[in-house]
Write a structure and sequence with these properties.
It catalyses: GTP + H2O = GDP + phosphate + H(+). With 436 residues, the chain is an alpha/beta fold. Helices cover 60% and strands 9% of the residues. Helix 2 runs antiparallel to helix 3, helix 2 crosses helix 4 and helix 9 packs parallel to helix 10. It starts with a helix and ends with a helix. The C terminus is likely disordered.
């Protein structure tokens, strides 16, 4: 998948604006990417159309390619669709106890989530109680009790198989024990059925939970959307918890669910342990769905930090192979703003496979700056003239050792080589484009 988008990038490298042709190619691949991340077909189609419209005429900042720019636009759009910001749990501060109820299919991760949420609330100074309203399977009650012990949160349960009685009993226990949040775990079935829905609905009507959360397994893919819709049609829930995101699921379900039921995703569960819970960040999920987080942050950083004119000048120097240590010094200043060189390499798809890591990994900027500062103008222009005695002088002047000077010169040579690779990539990309 990622490889496909990389190919798109290659195809588009060197084009200066987003136009009908290049966006057509990019959008086709992006649609494919969305579909294979399990985004619902209709949702993906609409999304791509919206984005196509938005992107046309969008100007491309000089240091990135139109394709990279499109990825960024898509990413921003996905983020926006999923709510932009994280939507927090909405517990009214004055209502004590506040009530959280969960619903969802069996095995979706409800019970685990209840415990995780209790732990999280406790950490934030709350005093929660867990209520076992999944009364049909003794094992389910035991599971909640075990989790409760683990996190030192009380669990209310009853022997009888009466979910309503359990829930109301839990509410009373909360009041008696001065608990400020009641978390009600409910029963699920393997499939949506009337009995389960009716029970959940009755609980909702009676408890009036402040937050009714729908818990769904992200590994369910497309089916997650149908389930979410069925639960929402009946229960009109307040938010979604997406579980098992530690698995292979790309998270397309997050996007589809949000589009179809128009409810915020509030939490994501990323493992079986009680700590494996995170609030849901739309921007991170967008990157996960696209599988292009690296490009997105590359474009962002480029937008933030790069002096565009300088970069253009640098590029033309690189093309002509006139890049010298003065330019290197300038480039370092910019790279410092963007993170390490290694970081930069890792951010550019394709490049990370082409450039050997070892030599570039441990660059410390300070001595490099000192060393270059100790060189003469002539030496910076023509590093090849720096012989043994010059190296000694430079080391002495910069307070470094000759080995460090050697190292720097070697790194500089590596960097030139790397830049040549980038150029080759750009050139080959351009060739593919004109042939198409
Ligand atoms: P419930 O039937 O909806 O209450 O689901 P459970 O909370 O009992 O979870 C079902 C299974 O999924 C259990 O084995 C959990 O340990 C596991 N599980 C729950 N959440 C996650 C998660 O985020 N990641 C992984 N890998 N497993 C999870
Ligand atoms: Mg359960």
């Amino acid at each position: 998948l990622s490889d496909k988008l990389e190919l798109t990038l290659k195809k588009l490298a060197g084009q200066a604006t987003i136009n009908e042709v290049n966006i057509g190619i990019a959008m086709r691949d992006i649609k494919r990417a969305l579909l294979s991340a399990d985004v619902n077909y209709k949702v993906a189609k609409k999304l791509v159309e919206d984005i196509r419209e938005k992107s046309l005429g969008e100007s491309v900042i000089k240091s990135v390619s139109p394709a990279q720019m499109i990825v960024k636009i898509v990413n921003d759009e996905l983020t926006e669709i999923m709510g932009g910001q994280n939507q927090p749990l909405n517990l009214p501060p004055k209502k004590i106890p506040a009530i959280v109820m969960v619903a969802g299919l069996q095995g979706s991760g409800k019970t685990t989530f209840c415990a995780k949420l209790a732990k999280r609330l406790k950490k934030n100074g709350k005093n929660p109680i867990l209520v076992a309203a999944d009364v049909y399977r003794p094992a389910a009650v035991e599971q909640l009790k075990t989790l409760g012990e683990q996190i030192d949160v009380p669990v209310f349960s009853i022997e009888e198989q009466d979910a309503m009685k359990a829930a109301l009993g839990g509410l009373e226990a909360a009041k008696a024990g001065a608990k400020d949040v009641v978390i009600v775990d409910t029963a699920g079935r393997l499939q949506i059925d009337e009995a389960m829905m009716a029970e959940a609905e009755a609980l909702k009507n009676r408890l009036s939970p402040d937050e009714l959360l729908f818990v769904v397994d992200s590994m369910m893919g497309q089916e997650a959307v149908n389930t979410a819709k069925a639960f929402n049609d009946r229960l009109d829930f307040d938010g979604v918890v997406l579980t098992k995101l530690d698995g292979d699921a790309r998270g397309g379900a997050a996007l589809s669910i949000r589009q179809v039921v128009e409810k915020p995703i509030k939490f994501m569960s990323v493992g079986e342990k009680v700590d494996d819970l995170d609030v849901f960040y739309p921007d991170r999920m967008a990157q996960r769905i696209l599988g292009m987080g690296d490009i997105v942050s590359f474009v962002e950083k480029a937008q933030e930090a790069l002096d565009l004119e300088k970069t253009m000048a640098m590029q033309s120097k690189l093309m002509k192979n006139e890049f010298d240590l003065d330019d290197f010094f300038d480039q370092l200043q910019q790279l410092k703003k963007m993170g390490s060189i290694q970081g930069l390499i890792e951010m550019v798809p394709g490049l990370n496979k082409m450039v050997p890591k070892q030599d570039l990994e441990n660059i410390n900027f300070k001595p490099i700056e000192a060393i270059i500062s100790s060189m003469t103008k002539q030496e910076r222009k023509h590093p090849e003239i720096i012989n043994g005695s010059r190296r000694k002088r430079i080391a002495l002047g910069s307070g470094t050792r000759v080995q460090e000077v050697n190292m720097l010169l070697k790194q500089f040579a590596e960097m030139k080589k790397m830049m040549r690779s980038v150029n080759r990539l750009a050139k080959s990309g351009r060739k593919i484009t004109t042939e198409n």
